Amino acid sequence: MIGSAVQNLITLTDTIFLGRVGEIELGAIGLVGVFYLMIASIGYSFSKAGQIMIARRVGRKELHQIGSITYSMAAFSLVLAFGLFLFMQFGADAFFGLFLNDQDIYRACIDYLSYRSIGIFFSYAGVIIVALYTGVGRTTVIIYNALVLGLVNTALNYGLIFGKWGLPEMGIAGAGLASTIAEGLAFFVFIIYILRDKKARAYGLFEMPEIDLRNIPLPANTDEIPLDKISPIKHTKIDLTIIKSQLKLSMPIVLQSVVGMGSWFIFFVIVEDMGKTPLAISNIMRAVYLLFMIPCWGFASGVNTIVSNLIGKNQKEEVFAATTKTAFLCFVCTMLCTTMLWFFPEYVLSISTDDSNLVAASAPLIPILSIVLAVFSIGAIYFNGLVGTGATNQALWLQIACVVLYLSYIYIVVHVLNAGLLVAWMAEFYYWVACFLLSIWYLRSRKWYTIKV
Predict the structure, then answer these.
(1) Is residue 175 domain-resident?
(2) Residue 203 lies in a domain
(3) Which residue range is the domain that position 332 belongs to?
């Protein structure tokens, strides 16, 4: 749960502090926070393919192949991170200029990204290690990482946003810098752990690549050396074949994330047309939504591993039952957490802002958010169970259908019917109902039985 929620926790912490700065900063972090989550989700989605492949190898007891999968995944992810870093540094101005009307919010978004974009390297490298340890079912290190990230990000946010402890007062730019430094230190924790992890030796992570000397011309005086005495290559750390397999498996997952998070970004863009106050209210609700999503994302990541592991053990008939049990556990856990929304709504809402007027204006959305979380806690599990089978192309088309419904609803409600924010937020409910029904239909169809990973 913690590992899956790292980016959510960073965005949530940024929102909590910036909610004390002003309405512009609160509205801006809602937009730019979702944008960065979309960028981060691309790397996270690519790592999902590696996680599924690693879990499948664990199920087959082929642990020696995990090293090549991990290194190949890391190589491509860092290249991808570099490309996205360049986009955020040099293309963000034009990108946000296409969508935003309010110049104050526009400038705040650019200020945040100018520092936050550097953290993409630590983020992408970190999710590779999360994928490795989630795939093998050893997730304790993720807790250490998240603790360091959360504590450092909280402390630096306080210091850099408000200019405390002798640090410069940077406002929303300070939030971006604080999150980047926190991700860098948290990644350092990962490196220390993995170097000290004796069990990691079994995964082939620390074996130096052997070189096939038979393909290298030798001097004349070595002609007498028998070729059978020269060791051929056994393990290549970065394997283009593995990268191709990961890309084939992950591209639909990446597109799912872009489509899913992109639709959320468009939702906030449409809400921005309604004014600064509706945008600020939506950002408060988004922060609460992100907080109560955390249990579900943990179960979702777990069901990816469980499903792939079962298939690796040739126990496909148990996949649907395992997914259903996970969905039930997730629903119960999420509903227990959301009781806070019913008994202490003002306290929960005030986490994001100290503006009593915004808290009061946000309160009517609590019942809708509770219903959305109930459906989400089930639909997301079945959807990720589907992804765990390797049916990523089918999952992509399923999500596209749901997003078309989602965006059509929002556009009609806001721009055609001129309905309020409460009606607009019902889009989340319809989205997850559709996702749940389509996912359960595909899992029951057993069309994924023939998919190879």
Answers:
(1) yes
(2) yes
(3) 3-211+236-450
